[in-house]
Amino acid sequence: MTVFLVVGLLALAAIVVGARVLASRAAHEEALSDARATTRLLARSVAEPAIPPGLAEGRPGAVDRFDRVATDRLLVGDVRRIKIWSADGTIVYSDDVRLIGERFALDEEELDILAHSGSDAEVSSLAEPENRYERGGPALVEVYTQVVTPEGEPLLFEAYFTLARIEARQSEVIAPFQRITLGALALLVAVATALLLLLTRRVTRAAAERERLLRGAATASEAERRRIARDLHDGVVQELAGSAFALSALARDQTGPTRTTLLDAASSLRGSLRSLRSLLVEIHPPDLNAATLPAALEDLCAPVSASGVAVDLRVGDLGDVGVPDAALVWRVAQEAVRNTLRHARATSLTVDLRAQGRSLVLTVEDDGVGFDPGAVDATAHYGLRGLESLVRDRGGVLTIRSAPGAGTTTRLETRA
């Protein structure tokens, strides 16, 4: 659940940031649109009707008449400066009389508006010569549009607005959308969190139920295996042991071929008894600990010894061995000994178990045909793959060394 919440919060943060960026851009465009609309209104409704003949030529009388009629009505609200340009870049009128008559180059956007009407807005560069009297003041946004003189000559009408007011208008536009967006996201988070909690509880309950069923199945299987092992041990094993002892005792009173036959039968029964005891260990190993582990390993190696392989079992002082470590050692030894018996065609097998600090180190080595570990087929050697996974889950280290014709060594080191 923590992972889902972290991912959800990161996604929420990304949505909030993305929405804010997009909303800021939209609000900025809306604020500039308001400035363009104001400029067009001033140009069409105030400036253009008041332009006298001769203003484009810069006649002093025409400039004075326009200044008396229009200036007070143009410098309203957030408008800080007014300029009117002719096509050659001459400022034919400005509320700052120092600029009237000066000439500056117009850029392509301004010439395009002068020729085809429309409007444009941009942040003013106060480093430009025509803006030298605004230096040291607030940042400005300049908006252009077209006006036409009574003679039909197009002029470029320019109004300056304070950037702070544009940004304030932008904040006014974006604020309601932010409240709506954040409110919707908060509601979404609340609903998603509630659903996540509900789903997490359901998944947890389902996992607990599955675990309970698996444990029940494992317990039932374990109980059944224990019952079978107990029945065999208390029934068939005891009867075979009794029969072997009886035959041995009977053979002592016989001579000749009869004695030999009875001794062979007793020996055969003892071999079958060893095999059956090994089978009992396979079905259900004993309760494993430091005391029982050596005997369990000896029973595990009995079938290998019975098959004619020389077995060397060495068990050192194990100290205090926990049940999980003992079970892991027995499981790895079981798989390694099985593989030796079934696949290795070995003549000798060495099983060595000793304590190393707080760890147990098990080494199972044979002189069989070996194999190439890099070419192991996962489907054909599922036991090895499962064994590696089991050891890894228990925190141990399993190493398998082998090569064709060089035997196999399986080494396990339990977690310290």
Q: Determine the strand fraction and express it as a percent band.
A: 15-25%
- Averaged pLDDT: 80
The assembly state of the depicted protein chains is single chain
CATH class category of the largest domain: Alpha Beta
**Low-confidence runs:** none
By secondary-structure content and strand pairing, the structural class works out as alpha+beta
Shape: rod-shaped
CATH topology of the largest domain: Beta-Lactamase
- CATH H-level homologous superfamily name of the largest domain: PAS domain
Work out the count of structural domains: 2
The helicity comes to 55-70%
DSSP strand tally? 10
CATH architecture of the largest domain: 2-Layer Sandwich
Please specify the SSE layout and strand pairing.
Elements: H1 2-50, H2 60-74, E1 79-85, E2 91-94, H3 108-116, E3 119-123, E4 140-148, E5 154-162, H4 163-252, H5 256-283, H6 293-306, E6 310-315, H7 323-344, E7 348-356, E8 359-366, H8 382-393, E9 397-402, E10 408-413
Parallel strand pairs: 6-7
Antiparallel strand pairs: 1-2, 1-5, 3-4, 4-5, 7-8, 8-10, 9-10
Helix pairs in contact: 1-2, 1-4, 4-5, 5-6, 6-7, 7-8
Structure in words:
There is one protein chain. The protein is 57% helix and 17% strand. The chain is α+β, with helices and mostly antiparallel strands. It folds into 2 domains: 2-175, PAS domain (Beta-Lactamase); 285-413, Histidine kinase-like ATPase, C-terminal domain (Heat Shock Protein 90). The model has no long low-confidence stretch (mean pLDDT 80).
What attributes characterize this protein structure?
10 strands; Beta-Lactamase; 57% helix; alpha+beta; single chain; five-stranded antiparallel beta sheet; 416 residues
